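Why does residue order matter? Because the sequence determines the fold. Keep that principle in mind as you read this record.
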Amino acid sequence: MHPNFFCGVSYGPCNRCLVIQFKMPPCCSCCLADEATQSWRIESETTAVGDNGKNISRFNWVHVPLCSKCHRHLWLQCWLFALVGIVLGAVATGMMLHYGPQLLANYRVLSPRFMAVMTIGSGGIIAWGVGYTLRKGLVDGALAIYQHKEGRIVFGNQRFQELFDEANPYVRKTRRSSLGI
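Structure:
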């Protein structure tokens, strides 16, 4: 292992990774119900440039407590966003299939099988991208934002944020802006 790296990520001359374990309040982070039997994983990606000039990415996550009702509600939202992604991917695939023969007429080098695979693949990528973006932005972003490099979590529920700040006095206090970030 290169001496400037610890945990696979370079954090400058101090050669340290920021490792924090948060103490979560024993209630649901959405509705503040007393019984938080489930959890939701909030992710954060950190990127650093290595000595060789290449980007090194690392994913970090923290589990946020939820009650069963809120956990079910968030999963339902995720499935609905996946459905929106699938519909948009299907529409894009249909449009490509509709206009594909015109493209093949202009470029006879392209095989129809190759075009079919590319069409279906493009529709799948669109479906995944839309579903993933909606989930990360509207489900995870509304619940909490994990900022690993700063060592803090910003929750959407302000009362839970206060309880979290009381349980973790060493964590830097933050407030959400009016934009939700």
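Helices lie at 68-106, 112-143, 158-167.
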